[in-house]
Amino acid sequence: MKAQIIKEMFEFLVEKKKYWVIPIIIVLLLIGILIIATEGSAIAPFIYTLF
Hints:
single chain; 51 residues; mainly alpha; 3 helices
């Protein structure tokens, strides 16, 4: 289900020629993964000071 939503989103971006949005989405996903991955670790206070 989620893979289909992601696939449709990228197809929409390509169809509408909104290629500049793709790097923004990737960066936001990486930041989200970083925050989730460091949530319970000792590194978390240092990561949060970056934002």
